[in-house]
Amino acid sequence: MARKMRFFKEQMVKAGFSPSTKSEARGDIDVDDLEVKLGELEAELIEMNANGEKLQRSYNELVEYKLVLQKAGEFFASAQHSAVAQQREMESRQMGEESIETPLLQDQETTIDLSKQVKLGFITGLVPREKSMAFERILFRATRGNVLLKQVPVEDPVTDPVSGEKMEKNVFVVFYSGERAKNKILKICEAFGANRYPFAEDLGKQALMITEVSGRITELKTTIDAGSYHRDNLLRTIGDQFEQWNLKVKKEKSIYHTLNMLSLDVTKKCLVAEGWSPVFATKQVQESLQRAAFDSNSQVGAIFQVLSTRESPPTYFRTNKFTSAFQEIVDAYGVAKYQEANPGVYTIITFPFLFAVMFGDWGHGICLLLATLFFIVREKKLSSQKLGDITEMTFGGRYVIMMMALFSIYTGLIYNEFFSVPFELFGRSAYACRDLTCRDASTVGLIKVRETYPFGVDPAWHGTRSELPFLNSLKMKMSILLGVAQMNLGIILSYFNATFFGSSLNVWFQFIPQMIFLNSLFGYLSLLIIVKWCTGSQADLYHVMIYMFLSPTDELGENQLFPGQKTVQLVLLLLALVSVPWMLLPRPFLLKKQHENQHQGQSYTPLESTDDTLHSEANNDSHGHGHEEFEFSEVFVHQLIHTIEFVLGAVSNTASYLRLWALSSLAHSELSVVFYEKVLLLAWGFNNIIILIVGIIIFIFATVGVLLVMETLSAFLHALRLHWVEFQNKFYEGDGYKFYPFSFALLGDEDD
């Protein structure tokens, strides 16, 4: 039945119909009755298609035959007219140039012509125009030039009777001599797909044939139109019930597919099914089985029993329309292992926030929010429609985009940028000119005349020569702080994973040394940034961090931010150096010793196992090494790679977070300034309404196309990279598999 439904859908698509989304409810049709009905409809439609194809082929052949009769007839008519004219010309010459020798010569020529005259045969038809040159060349070579080929192009494309495709063709007439040449020409015509048609030399017969063919074409056209009308009515009838029938077929197919997974028990009297079920749905499953047994009047009820297994269960997260898109972002990297910490919870906030750090402009954020609200307000209507690929993807992530827009408005207010224009939304600027001679901030320094601007960047910074250095310094340091904070969150989540799975080795020899190493270097750098901001120190943090490694015992001088800084740096440097072998060496040796202790003296296996034993073995098999063969070299190499990856990754990941600064300051902000100053303000300066309108249009298209589309996609991909690589590699294994429950509700989204 599924094959028949696919056949109906293909036929409707070819005919230009689409299945009705509002099928008429005609009651629950029985599956057996539906199968019989679908079979009858399929047979009827196949018969209609076969008859229609035969009629259409005959129609196309007659159209080609008519073209051959017309074009070849014109050629023969012109040839006969030329022959008659030539004969008359010869007779006129004979009458005007009579001499003593003329009769003798004419008798001799007539005798020679009659002796050499040979009856020529001819073949007419149509050949594809793209093959006409090769067709002529092959004919000439095969017959050694003993043919005469005449071709006439057909103006309009012709539908080929065999392939059914429209193509440009030429009408041809081939004159030949001899049966052998005829056989060669017929084979060449067949090889080139040239359709041959009979043709009479007599002009009267040609006219009768054209009249007869035209009449048959008219009759066939009427018959084909009537058949197409009946076929369209049948397809409309099928389309009205297609969705209802298709859903019914999908349900039956899924039921039988699931039943095929069941197995017979040892007595071969009942079926046994094993599967996964969420713990919270256990009672619901039991009630459903009892209700099904009651409704079916079964004498034996279904038995539901929870089993212990060593297999790793699938992962299932309960989501809604708001959280599902964020969970899909995480699952695209890898599905969480069973009971592993889910980064999707934190991604709901961190992902749109890091996007907004790069996108920060509250004007652009408002535009993004308005576009998203369109999808959210109309989500009920749009969810029932068939959308394009890009539109469907945007609609699915509408709540992600909404959060990105809200956070972009927030960070845009912090950056004080509205399409790159600053506003005094939270009061007046804290800076003002020294006296009346001050005209702009780019020539004369400003002085602080009131309290610090309460929220975000002071608008006085915009347009000054020190704007870019100030904002670059601010955003670069902010990027490091955000990056170190998120990486610390990832390491803390690895601690929760280790404690939940009872792996003390991962706590002592992975979590602790990783926290020490990361915070001894980049945590300390973050502390220096905060201290410098709070104290207003002029210390060079580049110098401090570089010479912390090169000359840890040298005096800091003017770069000292707090008392005892030199001692703190020495201690942190030693801790960072110690944490590397701490991560590398103990864990492989302890795993080896643990493996030896587990297998030492094991000469028998208990015959009976309790549920607790099975559960513990399942955990060991899923999350530990279990009873697999232990290879110390493999474990040590794996630990070495993991250690090197973390040490180098701590540096590269921190540097990777600088993309937050690069995209916000250099990409988005500077592009916004360029479009505002070089397009909008430049057009405004001409004092011409036409130039101003053109400038506004260019500004709108540049803002939408570059900043709201390309920059949004760029910032989205960079935020995705920061979560997948810099954040999730600290704790997330992602080697699980999704839980796909049997549900009729999911059948509508599946493809055939």
From TrEMBL:
Record's subcellular location: Membrane
Protein name (database record): V-type proton ATPase subunit a
Biased segments, Basic and acidic residues type: 612-625
Keyword tags: Coiled coil, Hydrogen ion transport, Ion transport, Membrane, Transmembrane, Transmembrane helix, Transport
GO CC annotations on file: vacuolar proton-transporting V-type ATPase, V0 domain
Example of a GO MF term: proton-transporting ATPase activity, rotational mechanism
Record membrane topology: Multi-pass membrane protein
